[in-house]
Amino acid sequence: MITGESRIEDILRNSPEKARIFVEFGVPCIVCGEPFWGTVRELCERYQVDVNMLLKKLNEDRKGA
Length: 65
Description:
Blueprint: H1 8-14, H2 19-24, E1 30-31, E2 34-35, H3 40-47, H4 51-59
Antiparallel strand pairs: 1-2
């Protein structure tokens, strides 16, 4: 489960396809080809994104889509 304290680089290492979700929310998760260093919460605070909405989308089960 991805939480606010999950590190961006770990998420993208394990599930690179999730980068598109960050982009959908208007937040960059890749800087100069490298994952953003920090947590989901830090990224959301920096770009004024609702952390709960982003986490919900990141944790959705794609099988049900």
